[in-house]
Amino acid sequence: MEQLKCIGCGISIQTTKPKELGYTPASSLKNVEDKVIYCQRCFKLKHYNEVQDVSLTSGDFLKILQQVGESDALVINIIDIFDFSGSLVTGITRHIGGNDILVVGNKVDLLPKSTNKTKLNHWMRRSLKEMGLKPLDVALVSAEKGLGIEELMGMIEKYRKGRDVYIVGCTNVGKSTLVNRIIKRFTEEQQDIITTSHFPGTTLDIIEIPLDDETAIIDTPGIINEHQLAHYVTPAVLKQMTPKKEIKAGVYQLNPEQTLFIGGLARLDFVKGERTSFIFHLSNQLHIHRTKLEKAEQLWKTQAGSVLKPIILENDQPRPMEKHVYHINNQKTDIVISGLGWLTLIGTGQEIHIHAPVGVGVFIRPSLI
Ligand code: GDP
Prior knowledge:
Elements: H1 40-48, E1 55-56, H2 58-70, E2 73-80, H3 92-95, E3 100-106, H4 117-130, E4 137-140, H5 149-160, E5 164-169, H6 175-187, E6 195-198, E7 205-210, E8 216-219, E9 222-223, H7 235-241, E10 250-254, E11 258-262, E12 266-272, E13 276-282, E14 288-292, H8 293-303, E15 313-314, E16 317-318, E17 321-327, E18 332-337, E19 341-346, E20 351-357, E21 362-366
The site of guanosine-5'-diphosphate has 19 residues, from helix 6.
């Protein structure tokens, strides 16, 4: 078949990867001769003024970041507070030059209501600093619930100082949900203000929301971060493992040589140490299965996909697990499994092994809450 192109952005049409550029459902390509083809992204933008995120690999994304680095702009990096390390754009400081950066932590609605926001704000700044990122400010929002949006708009106005604003972020952080909120605010006053344009020197299109006659908010495609578990699972599993509302922490008291399976997605072995409380921050829809460490391997071999579910399949087999070994020496530590959640443990001296699907990021940090 002749290669079809979207008449909105010129991209080649494809029907297999919904999150990538040029996607159009195959069903909309029937009787193509007498139809004008839009990719789904342009279609939604044209008819609903709605932005849909598309993803890019890091190579293409670097081109965009470099361009951002060459212009005088305010950069807004959206991250997912539920997957803090996993949703950071690696090397962002290196590429955006001396530009000012504002970090927005999204999905704040998922954190327990008792979370102290000022402490969280300090924690974010400290963690970002350790990663070499010194933002002008940090904001906490819930794009979905509309929390913190007015404050964010105020910050943007304060820090942009008449410059363009670039929005960057990994996929799945809620970037499109947030951008759509921002667009809604603008379109209440004015219709059809959004445009797409090609990114100079690439075939990538970006979305511009004008702020005034000369400057705009520029929404860039989402970058794929392969550490995110979300990247490996089916949409149904993603739905099951993504919390939809405030996470209710679950507490497990474990003796050494006990194991907990988090569905079939990860496994925690408490290898050595005093009896310890583990506080889980995960989707309530995931089932935790407790067993003895010595039985864990066998249980995984015989029950992966049945008692232990959901699992990630690869060529009809469970995706292999990788072991991460931790010796705990902080009073209150979080172990984060990127995209799945985290567990907090109290006390020191424990040896913990986390088994997570190969490629998925597992991080340790001083406790967030
Ligand atoms: P993008 O890939 O960064 O554009 O992310 P999306 O906007 O498509 O959102 C990814 C997922 O996160 C979707 O399941 C959204 O429903 C969810 N999401 C987005 N914003 C929020 C939020 O503020 N809170 C919660 N709980 N979920 C959110």
